[in-house]
Write a structure and sequence with these properties.
The chain has 277 residues and is an alpha/beta fold. The chain is built from 10 helices and 13 strands. 31% of the residues lie in helices and 26% in strands. Bound molecules: 1-O-phosphono-alpha-D-glucopyranose.
Amino acid sequence: MISKCLYPVAGYGTRFLPATKSIPKEMLPVVDKPLIHYAVEEAMSAGMINNAFVTGRGKYSISDHFDISYEMENEISGTGKEEKLKEIRELLANCTFTYTRQKQMKGLGHAVLTGENMIGDQAFGVILADDLCITEPDEDSVMKQMVGLYKQFRCSIIAIEEVPRENISSYGVIDGEMISDNIFRVKDMVEKPPADKAPSNLAVIGRYILTPDIFDLLRDTQPGTGGEIQLTDAIKAQAKNGCVMAYKFKGRRFDCGSVEGFVEATNYCYENIYKKK
Ligand code: G1P
């Protein structure tokens, strides 16, 4: 029902320099897969087979990754290593990949608006690949859980997580009315508030399902925190007009935008996924 997922991938990844000098941060591997590959697999598991990337200069390796590598296929076909290509072949066979460039870094909201032509007039997913979300093998992926909620509410759905107060200023934060254990109706939102001004400890995580009215709201959004056009501000306007639900998802999320989170994710995926293959 929701067939498209948008990936804002234009950022510089300065926290990982010099590793990210010529490799996009989304291509850093957690064990044996780049972060962006986990993101596309998660979208696919939720039925979002059309992948739309808002990219930037120097990000060619992302489009190369989601394409056939004839030389490599030729080298390893018929050898024991062919197994290694199985997952990516399946993904390529089932998905489409579209790219557009964000010419200036004007914030997450601006990145999403840049992707409008690739999305059109339909609800869509957004995944920030540096929030890596892992669920148990018998559990739905976070995006699939969110699609379930979208079917129920037919409005924008944002993923949230409780974070310690001292870290809250790194996130978008919601003020919501609890309607069940894991679901809140969003009343207000603020991007990266100081800890003492945060309306709650419920932080927005990089998974969204957005209805297409978000594009007009983004066009009307003025630069906010950090002088950037914030997605949070447009979703806040959407919440005031109608309905936006926030969902405390099942699963573990790793902040792979930080070195500590990245190392934690690597250890977790090695022990719980890679070694069990
Ligand atoms: C972005 C969003 C923020 C959200 C966060 C999740 O911030 O602007 O609302 O909480 O992603 O990772 P960024 O981490 O890109 O600064």
